[in-house]
């Protein structure tokens, strides 16, 4: 079969690889759509936990092509998506309800071959069936949206909370919809792109603010009081540093964007103490595929407008090499 293989950091190519036959408890999926995300670029650049050669692709949808021994709940032809995270089930984290911190963590498209290929092999226990009304395009959003669901479970927005969100990229756009229907009163979204801010306002932000105009756009009252919840969805250290200026008394901060592993910011511990701050992380997905599927299938979270381009597997190599810094929302690969 044809696959995109990252042979080593900064070297991706399309080549023929062996068809992945399902082993016991597994299925092989004929891939339809695979989303490209920031993590794939980290993998391409060698700054993530992957080993090489690797076929990336962890946000995907497709049809079951072959069922391995012992799989009874799924059949050939089922339309599905798969949770990429594969937990061992027996380490201390798995046994204490922290499986997303599994000490033997494995993930499709990260530590084992993923869906930037015609076929991908996954454990049947990671599957969800797509409703007939859900397109493959939407099905490939279940994974990123499951990250949003986990973030929402972490941050626990209270009814009436005043929220400030930095970053209106593809993930920020999904997160802002979730925040807006989960009880926030104000939802200010900050970005450098006015078109993304307009989109944010259309899908639930009470206000989109250009980052260069942030301080003049906020009222003195807002600056003095800060916000109840501040979220970073950019992963950019200078933005994160700035975000803490907008924390108020007993505020929560959520780090949702993935920063570079070596990035640092400065924080005064006295401020954290004096202000009763809560600082939260949100590591990917944690048994949040089903709620994500429901949110999407009910149309409560809309994602079709986030697909800015659909490309072929061949074009994906160029994307890794050249286009990664352009101003896209979500790019999907049509297999
Ligand atoms: Zn992703
Ligand atoms: Zn484990």
Cα Rg: 20 Å
Q: Which ions, cofactors or small ligands are bound in this entry?
A: zinc ion
Bulk shape: globular
CATH topology of the largest domain: Quinone Oxidoreductase, Chain A, domain 1
Q: Give me the strand/helix succession.
A: EEEHEEEEEEHHEHEHEHHEHEHEHEHE
The CATH superfamily label of the largest domain reads Medium-chain alcohol dehydrogenases, catalytic domain
Through-space gap between termini: 12 Å
Q: What's the CATH first level of the largest domain?
A: Alpha Beta
Task: Count the DSSP helices.
Answer: 11
Whole-number tally of structural domains? 2
Q: Work out the helicity level.
A: 25-40%
The biggest beta sheet reads: 7 strands, mixed
Q: Roughly what is the average pLDDT, rounded to an integer?
A: 95
The count of strands amounts to: 17
Write out key terms for the chains shown:
2 domains; Rossmann fold; six-stranded parallel β-sheet; 335 residues; Quinone Oxidoreductase, Chain A, domain 1; binds zinc ion
